[in-house]
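Handout, page 2. Input:
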Amino acid sequence: MEGIVTVLKPPGMSSSDAVVDVRRIFETKRVGHLGTLDPEAAGVLPVCVGRAVRLFDYLVDKQKTYLCEIVFGIATDTQDAQGAVIERRDCDIDADALDAALPAFLGRTVQTPPMYSALKYNGRKLYELALEGKEIPDKSREIEIASLERTRTLGKNRFLLRVTCSRGTYIRTLCSDIGAALGVPAHMAFLLRESSGMFTLDGAYSVAELEALKAEGRLEAALTGCEQALSHLPRLDLRADRKKPAMNGLPTRINAPDGLYRLYCTTFLGIGAVQDGDAVLKVHLYSE
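Output:
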């Protein structure tokens, strides 16, 4: 079996733990997730199984959507509810003030990731360096927020936000930055990833559900096939006589714009790339 399984990760489980569970359930070593989800966060964690791990570079950059709770008046050293409180301040942020502040965060911006994160510097994770009290150079990077809206008011200084953003966006840092824009401390109290590219909560399975499917002999039903996972790429068909040459990595002259394609030659072959009129099979996904 191969494809992508959408794991419904609960709070308290690391992304690595989820990979270990999928490896055990599917009985294969070729497993890898499409983007870390913090241990205390919940939601969608797409995990590639078998040859689908070859798709990492083509799927990992897809937009992600989150539902989070932002709390004003309290800041923590990790920017979420698991950290130590470093500032408290009386405030009363209303929905109108929050709504007025959100548009400034849309589009391409620069974000400084939190020290308590899994990013690495000189081969070591930032949170390890943070625990040792060590400083590192600025790790700011460009992110893009496609949409940001308040979906609900939960109480005084507590709101639900829905965010659609690029890979590498830290929602807890976004919450802290929104607080700074309003002149008050803030942190993220809850995070749910609702989607990662085409993979959504509706198609997600808990570890227990995957184990149940395996016991019933229906585990394959949980997988999204490689061809379907690449549905965002346009289709390109080669002449039937070019199948074997394509499978051997030889180019085929074709009238098509440069770019990536789902490549077919009587059957699905994998990911093809066209450059200067030559189509070449880049990622082999066909069955022998």
